[in-house]
Amino acid sequence: MSHAVSESLSDTLLDARDVEVTYPSRGFRTPPFRALKGVSLDIKPGETVGLVGESGSGKTTLGRAILGLAPVSSGSIRYGDRELVGLDRAARRGLAHEIQVVFQDPYTSLNPAMLVADVLSEPLVAQGVAKSEAADRVEMLLGQVGLPADAGRRLPREFSGGQRQRIAIARALALEPRLIVCDEPVSALDLSTQARVLDLFIEIQDRTGVAYLFVSHDLSVVRHISHRVAVMYHGEIVEYGDCEQVTGDPRHPYTKKLLMAAPVPDPEMQRQRRVERQRLALL
Amino acid sequence: MSIPAPEHNPQLLAAAIAPREGVLKKILRDPFGSGGIVVIVVIVLLSVFAKLLAPFDPAYVDIQATNMPPFTDGHPLGTDASGRDVLSRLLVAGQLTLIGAAVTVVISLVIGVVTGLVAGYFAGPFDHAASWTADMLMVLPSKIVLVALFAVIGPNTVVTMAVLGVMVSPGIFRLVRSLVIGVKNELYVDAARVAGLSSRAIIGRHILYTVRAPIIIQAAFIAGIAVLIQAGLEFIGLGDPSTPTWGGMLQEAFLAMYKAPWLILWPGLMIGLFVSAFILLGNAVRDAMEDSAKVKVPKKDRLRTSTMAVTVQPGRRAANTPAIASGSALLVVDSLVVGYPLPDGELKRVVDGVSLSVNEGEVLGLVGESGSGKTQTAFAILGLLPEEAQIAGGALFFRGEDLIGMPEKARVKLRGKSIAYIPQEPMSNLDPAFRVGFQLVEPMRAQLGLSKSEATKQALELLARVGIPDPKRTFDAYPHQISGGMAQRVLIAGAISCNPDLLIADEPTTALDVTVQAEILDILRGLQKERNMAMVLVTHNFGVVADLCDTVAVMQLGRIVEQNSTAALFAAPVHPYTKMLLDSTLEGTPARAPLRRAESPVRVITTEDDRPREEALNVSRSV
């Protein structure tokens, strides 16, 4: 094998090509719903790819397709040298070490009836780690996400939204994955909590080299955490490039519209942005 | 920074650890629950040790002593028509009843829960087959089947009750199946799937555990029903005459009704007690598992606090006179305190002495994080606080009129006409059963006294004004047929339909996409200018404040920490909390730099390296 091929392979952790997800129609004679219309995206090891779009754009569906939670009707998702599309449940379980998830809603993503320690040790035990070793790991994980060690003895409902999201992050880290799909992980949080959780994401990435697919509707959040950004609109990626370029100097009209629509916390700047947006809308 | 981060505040964390109470403990504390358990346990013990406790052999016939009243000749409950001891028969009869009820419950649970879990979780062909079978079983009249069964197999209580168990299992099946379908798409089930748990582990650990409460409750009810049906069958003579049963005793007592009416009392009492014990226990289990720690406010208390608020006002009014006399302040909130009673009788103050004023045509932004009390303040102004909330102090004036002391009727009139409201969740604020047009026209007719056609015409104009492209189509649509952005426009149209002086918007764009948010903000700004309407805008987004507001009040933990004109506040925030919040906004911060090779963990494994490819890939560790 030539060095060139080896290099290009080692450079890509996940490579999605022409992924289509179609949901069958509910009503009579209504066409099936195409949530993803041939989406291609690659993620490098240790990289954050931000996936930004509005509701219904398919950004969450792409994350779920990578996680094996959405039915891919065509296209391919390669992880290293493995094809993820069409894996059965059993084969998919083997990927738990590689790809993990942090969901948006910290209230429904943790089983309300389970102690935090059980939530965190569950993936470990499922992968054959001894119980005593798992308990040690749980304590370490809680420390990693900035929670006290005794947090394990409590139920999720005893924690605030930000703390729950830290628990969800600890659960994702438990198996030391190389890719975490983060589906709007900070959008349910308060402003100050959001900033701290984002910093935690970045700190963990710097330390462990994990890659993120960071799904969000908020361009400013994506801009803060991403190395590269993909913009989705109606099931397609309309712009994909370096973070600074996409979020600072967008090329596609939709990305421009998205950027201009977000209000800035400065009355004068916001007035200018508003005028600019209204000018763009008239074009 | 001097502000303790709420997330890491050890005090808050400590406060969050309330002593956990086991479900069993809660059931025992509930008088109905403990009573039910005591009755069931006593009856079970009496039945199990019946042979030891019974003063006579239940089959021993004393022809000399038939239909004896209670407390005669060593028969505490008397004797029946054949001269047998009633107490002994009653005790022994419990055995078969308990066995029968247990058989029914176990059989129906095993069949119902297992099939329900599998059908709900995996769906597909098994679900179809199981649901079809359940439907078939449900249309069979169970009592007639049991009567027919008696004709075939004769008196055999265990088999009869087992068949009953099968007959009632569809009820459990359908319950479990629908619960599972509701739970299986929860995010924590998805997370368990991603974590590599097998389907069996997910069903056992996550799903069964979550749906267990309704199953236990249903089982308690089935036990009660089983006892009733068994007694009913025995009463109509389909029991085993050789063994005493409660239903059989009831039947015998019924035949001796005129000679010894008291005989009917004992089996009737046992059946009644036992069945009600199960039903009460079921209810107690439900209450304990639903974990409702509701605090009931005694009516007396509520009255007292409201009169207190009223009596406070004269003094307050004097203090406020300057603001009102100036005539410019449309809305004055003075030292408002809103609280919720805690179980220990204390008041949890969610709004703690908030004072603000809004002039005609002025837009006030009320900013804060969750739990800051901003929404509670807005609801207090609207008079829409939940029932258990108490206004524990302060005053509210609208155009100099006292809002708190105002009779509810006048308040209703004010709301909608002079003070309008835009909610956060547009969809949940439209009634799905009525067309959009109807929901716009009705308030206009009620508040403005317009005719139907006039109101319709105005509603269509308003819909066009809030930027709805095809007003007629939206007017005729049901809420589920329009998008969230359209629904919010409809609610804005509704809010301004009666020309309010004050519009209270509670996070009006939080649930919307950012491009839609910009359009809604444009509409609000336009309407506000056009009608010189005052607005209170509750939001957590400083960008929205910068876009729309003239003045800002920043709230933290029920108090206003800083209040200023928008320009001044953004230019020079004073309070550390405001500074911290503004520092937390990401708008306008620099973008993260592109991933340098140096940051990548595969950096060391470059092409110069001669390691085998598997390692260079560094992704196939666990293959």
UniProtKB/TrEMBL annotation, chain B:
Residues 94-282 form the ABC transmembrane type-1 domain. It holds the Pfam family ABC_tran. SUPFAM superfamilies: MetI-like (SSF161098), P-loop containing nucleoside triphosphate hydrolases (SSF52540). The chain crosses the membrane at residues 32-54, 98-124, 144-168, 215-233, 264-285. Residues 331-582 form the ABC transporter domain. Keywords: ATP-binding, Cell membrane, Membrane, Nucleotide-binding, Transmembrane, Transmembrane helix, Transport. Gene3D superfamilies: MetI-like, P-loop containing nucleotide triphosphate hydrolases. The keyword Transport applies. It is found in: Cell membrane; Membrane. It comes from the Bacteria. It is a multi-pass membrane protein; Peripheral membrane protein. InterPro entries: AAA+_ATPase (IPR003593), ABC_Ni/Peptide_Import (IPR050388), ABC_transporter-like_ATP-bd (IPR003439), ABC_transporter-like_CS (IPR017871), MetI-like (IPR000515), MetI-like_sf (IPR035906), OppC_N (IPR025966), P-loop_NTPase (IPR027417). PANTHER family: DIPEPTIDE TRANSPORT ATP-BINDING PROTEIN DPPD (PTHR43297:SF2), OLIGOPEPTIDE TRANSPORT ATP-BINDING PROTEIN APPD (PTHR43297). Belongs to the binding-protein-dependent transport system permease family. This is ABC transporter. It comes from Microterricola pindariensis.
